[in-house]
Please model this.
Amino acid sequence: MLTIALGLLPATVGVFEMMQKGVDIIATDIPGPPTEAHFASARIEARYAFAPTSGAALNATPVSLAGGPSIGLTIDTGAVADPVVLIECLGRGLDDVASAAATA
Amino acid sequence: MAGALLGRVGTAGSILWTLDRDPQLRSPIAVVVVFDREPPVAEVTRRFGVLCRRVRHFRSTVVPPSVPWDLPRWREDESFEVANHVRHLRVALPGTLRSTDPPDSSHFVPVRVDLPADLPDAQPTCGPCPGSSGDGSTRRPWERATC
Model:
């Protein structure tokens, strides 16, 4: 009954908003099949999921398929002034991580 | 005509539904699938339609509670049309998302997608790929598609 009331309280939105004020990035990992996948006679090369920011500045959602990830970014352009710069930095960061993993 | 009621929304779902009133806290999810070739769009839509008929929650909507202390309910949306939720775009080789909006240099591609709230007024689109004659008749088998 408490959870029912919590879900119906108008203050729920306000509380959630307040919690999200301290969140910059939400990351959601969605593991996919480790092998190739087909749909309607076509092979699926990649899947991108664009998840909600839920009040944060950015949501990054990698979805894997056959061992390779595809990353969907949902960006609050009111919070991120230049999304292209952010995207480039993320790309470089992933390159660094991949290089470090390859040489480890 | 209103569809059948399917039962109450769970407590977690009720909270998310309540949060949906704030545009910043809405929880729409869009998915882009990249295929190696253009699948038959009618067949893609048909398969999603079959799935939505078998899983009723995929085509249900939320009915607000009649009293403030109750939970909202699920109801079958008889006006649900899966074609309004599936769009496709055909692009020329190399056929990646970069073909739709080339970035400077990145692993990522800026793509603008419509939120589900916009979809009821939208129609699926199928346009010619860049460089074609415009009527789609010049489609070549090696051109790829995204859905």
